[in-house]
Specification:
36% of the residues lie in helices and 11% in strands. It has 645 residues and is an alpha+beta fold. A six-stranded mixed sheet has the order 2-1-6-3-4-5. Strands 8-7-12-9-10-11 form a six-stranded mixed sheet. A two-stranded antiparallel sheet has the order 13-14. β7 and β8 form a beta hairpin. It is globular. Bound molecules: iron/sulfur cluster.
Length: 645
């Protein structure tokens, strides 16, 4: 058996109050690596078609990888996956922090949960032992309170707590899962799935070490990182992810005013630099990570007081609760972030659904009567904060918005709610609210602008989880590609620069290759802020690390194939649920002109977009219906999927 993993997967049936251990063969670990691919494999094999995502029949998979918990920056991540209550398709989100490495030390590589507990429960996993414990007293607590209570009950700070907040308990469709209060499996509503199982938390503690095959080789990778990564003023460590706010605005690609605009006049007020100057008190980190990109903020005066306990806003939050809602008040954004983290709801979807509601209000679709007296206007910071709390509690209009923009738009258009976004059911006849609902496959758009970064048209439309910004590298990296091989993607064979606005075959190729890299990161649990191109760790060093940990004679080629395998399994999962190539689309606003900024007047051309997708399908080995061909399934070793369709 290779090293790096325990060879044990914990199975839990909450309805039956049964736990057992499964021991997959080495072949499974080498083929799927862990994380996204391991989770997709279980969901595709074991979840029957058509399951209600919020029923006991849904499965929640929490999967580490073969390198999670090894002593290298970025190797802290694990995947949460299930059928998504937000999209009705494959749902998945990754998180770093401390829980994944602790689960590995406790003796397990993954946990697979089905059923529903008869009363609120939590799991206590420690050194190979598993208990299902009563969580009645924890139900209803915000995340800070319940984490404190669990740690007190189990004996201390070395216990790592993964949990949902009241948002997950109340089945907010974009509720998330959080570990150690600051690290989120943010997207696709995995917190609602956990809530539907009456499962408040999973506490873990372990004393075993994660064994590696070649300690010397692991040390060499660390040495490389030490020599090649130096923290600089203005970088991820210094200013965090929101360091990019001013340049995005300047370049006309900062999502603003519910994606009507690309430039925000208060961009500097909400930038990483302003966070650093005003409210930052500490830079947080994940297990073994020297990048330490996380923010911890504190505000002790004024209308928006914020505790350091819940971390601080990252870029996606700053843009979604900020520029997208035209809010330039940093304290209000920090408060909105704190509320999201207490209730454990996704900050991207929360900001997006509030911006949607603001545009509905502007157009008379929502009135003061609907909002409970709140002036839900763009730029109203107080309204944004109040609405965030109402969503977390599912109060008033918050109850409608907690369904996400797609369902809220249906509701506000006077149509029934509850169906899944199969294109065959049609979304074209919602003339009002629907056109303000910026989503793909039911998931709200993240804070990156496809009209300026054109590969995102592919990323958002093709992502199996609905609009997602971590599918592949973004276009600025393709502009820097270099014929002399002086770019971090040279080892992928990407040498020719491609313009940001290009939508031709060179752009599709760059996207296709880097998508495989990012999919591999999600399988192996490597943080995308540590691996290139965003972070410092070179592709060859990551490959070296996987070899050093597992002892396998593996290669970049084999590892990229694992990434592609994960993506194809997710796509087949969605097709089984009734999605078609018509769901590979973008919201109507993307085909309309940006209203301000450096790219004013730019829009996605429909024919170019269609052609771009056709080229991608062919490159990826998908047929004209967007379905992976028989040959592609065989090439990826996925012929078995034919038996589960
Ligand atoms: S770069 Fe940031 S998010 Fe990634 S592992 Fe390090 S601290 Fe965590």
């Amino acid at each position: 058996m290779g090293k790096g993993y325990n060879g044990k997967i914990l199975r839990v049936d909450l309805s039956e109050r049964k736990v057992w251990t499964e021991e997959p063969e080495e072949f499974i670990y080498r083929t799927y690596l862990g994380g996204a691919a391991l989770a997709a494999q279980y969901l595709l094999k074991e979840l029957p078609e058509g399951v209600d995502p919020l029923s006991p029949d849904n499965m929640l998979v929490l999967a580490c990888s073969v390198i999670t918990g090894t002593p290298i920056p970025g190797a802290s991540r694990f995947t949460a996956a299930a059928k998504s209550p937000l999209t009705g398709g494959y749902g998945e989100a990754e998180a770093g922090g401390w829980w994944g490495p602790e689960l590995k030390r406790a003796g397990y590589d993954a946990i697979i949960i089905k059923g529903r507990a008869s009363a609120p429960a939590y799991l206590w996993v420690h050194d190979g032992e598993v208990e299902i414990k009563d969580a009645s007293k924890l139900w209803g607590m915000v995340t800070g309170e319940s984490q404190k209570a669990i740690k007190e009950e189990l004996g201390g700070n070395r216990v790592r707590v993964l949990q949902i907040g009241p948002g997950g308990e109340k089945l907010v469709r974009f509720a998330c899962i959080v570990n150690e209060l600051k690290h989120f499996n943010g997207r696709t509503g995995m917190g609602a799935v956990m809530g539907s199982k009456n499962l408040k938390a999973i506490a873990v503690h372990g004393t075993d070490k994660v064994e590696v095959a070649d300690k010397g080789a692991v040390r060499e990778v660390l040495k490389w990182l030490k020599e090649n990564y130096v923290q600089q003023p203005g970088d991820m460590h210094d200013m965090g992810t929101s360091r990019i706010v001013p340049s995005l605005s300047e370049n006309g690609i900062l999502p603003t005013h519910n994606f009507r605009d690309g430039a925000f006049d208060k961009a500097m007020d909400i930038s990483g630099e302003r966070v650093k100057e005003t409210i930052l008190v500490r830079r947080g980190t994940c297990y073994a990570c020297s990048v330490a990109c996380k923010r911890e903020v504190k505000i002790t005066e004024g209308p928006y007081q914020v505790s350091q306990e819940y971390g601080g806003p990252e870029y996606e939050t700053v843009a979604s609760l900020g520029s997208l809602c035209d809010v330039g008040d940093l304290a209000a954004i920090a408060k909105g972030n704190e509320i999201c983290n207490k209730y454990a709801i996704d900050t991207i979807s929360t900001g997006a659904v509030i911006a949607f509601a603001m545009e509905c209000y502007e157009n008379g679709i929502l009135t003061k009567q609907d909002t409970g007296g709140i002036e839900l206007e763009f730029g109203n910071a107080d309204a944004m904060v109040k609405m965030t709390e109402m969503i977390g509690k599912r109060e008033g209009l918050g109850d409608v918005l907690a369904e996400g923009v797609m369902r809220a738009a249906k509701k506000l258009s006077g149509r029934g709610m509850g169906d899944f976004p199969h294109s065959s059911r049609g979304m074209g006849d919602f003339p009002h609210a629907e056109k303000f609902a910026l989503h793909v496959k039911g998931q709200e758009l993240p804070m990156h602008e496809p009209r300026g970064k054109r590969s995102l048209a592919l990323a958002y439309s093709l992502s199996p989880t609905g609009a997602d910004h971590m599918e592949a590298a973004h276009d600025p990296f393709y502009e820097l590609l270099n014929p002399e091989g002086k770019h971090v993607f040279a080892s992928l064979g990407l040498l020719e620069p491609v313009d940001m606005l290009d939508m031709g075959s060179k752009k599709v190729r760059a996207f296709y290759y880097t998508k495989q890299l990012f999919d591999f990161y999600n399988c192996v649990g490597m943080c995308m802020f540590v691996g290139v191109p965003i972070g410092p760790l070179a592709i060859k060093e990551i490959v070296k690390h996987v070899k050093a940990v597992t002892g396998w004679d593996t290669s970049l080629w084999e590892l990229l194939k694992a990434g592609e395998r994960a993506n194809v399994m997710m796509r087949i999962f969605n097709f089984r649920e009734g999605f078609t190539k018509d769901d590979d689309t973008l919201p109507e606003r993307m085909f309309q002109e940006l209203q301000n900024g450096a790219l004013k007047g730019e829009k996605i051309d429909r024919d170019e977009f269609k052609k771009m997708k056709e080229i991608y399908y062919q490159m990826a080995g998908w047929d004209e219906k967007g379905y992976p061909t028989e040959a592609k399934l065989a090439e990826l070793g996925l012929k078995w999927v034919e038996s589960v369709l």
